[in-house]
Amino acid sequence: MSKILxxxxxxxxxxKKVAFENLSLGKKLSTDLGAxxxxxxxxxxxxxxxxxxxxxGALKVIACQNDALDxxxxxxxAKILADTVTAEDASIVIMGATLMGKDxxxxxxxxxxxxxxxxxxSVEVSEGDLKIVRPIYAGKxxxxxxxxxDKKLLTVRPNVYPAEENPESTxxxxxxxxxxxxxxxxxxxxAGSKDKLDxxxxxxxxxxxxxxxxxxxxxxxxxxxxxxxxxxxxSRAAVxxxxxxxxxxxxxxxxxxxxxxxxAVGISGAIQHLAGMSSSKYIVAINKDPEAxxxxxxxxxxxxxxxxxxxxxxxxx
Length: 317
Hints:
The protein is of the alpha/beta class. It has eight helices and 17 strands. The chain has two domains: 3-176, Rossmann fold; 204-316, TPP-binding domain (Rossmann fold, 3-Layer(aba) Sandwich), CATH 3.40.50. It is globular.
């Protein structure tokens, strides 16, 4: 029986939402292909996470642990994951199109001499093979592709597939992993506020752009996001101007997002920004310029002064 292997991303001993989403996708593909679904964890002190993955369809969880892997180490993670794929003889490997996944996937693909499809927004089985859709040319075109190599690697955009529980009787195998020589060592990670929602995982995002005119006016974005339980985002113009932190930037040179609801406030909709959020399920645009490009892809548009519209939305909420 062939195998589908899902890399279950974790940080600080907590599984990321994308791990459950990819397991749900892996479960569907394994059913269609008659394959076994295996999850892989890499890190330190992660033994308690395996049972959580079983709730989303993993028949087996391989927990690879080592003190040197307490923080993400690209070389060590790549070697261990590639060795595990080989040992399990997995034909399909699924990872998240996250910061870690984008860094790790090409390293693993190179070690396995495998084809890699990145930032996938649709994966399904057609004629016994994978039919993959991914955006190209900054999101202006969607390409349907097939991978010809024996082993196929995919990174899937977060929030594209829902995390659906599908409990299985899971076997958790703990492995004392050997990352071998790690040439580059991560000694410290300076994280932002832990209470702040990450735009890549948020179901709702409220983003502000240059139309807010001043960094102090971003309190409108914060207040609206708070009312909706949303994450705060920003355009490249707002970040380049020093109004917001880079971690909030949505776009081709920032983060790619796929929330259920994306509200763009004072953002014109340059192609760079659209490339990062055009796959959102519903897009609401607020801009005083009726010719703004953002309205071409918006599901709902409000042509008006954001300084009048947003306070009314907050009041109604």
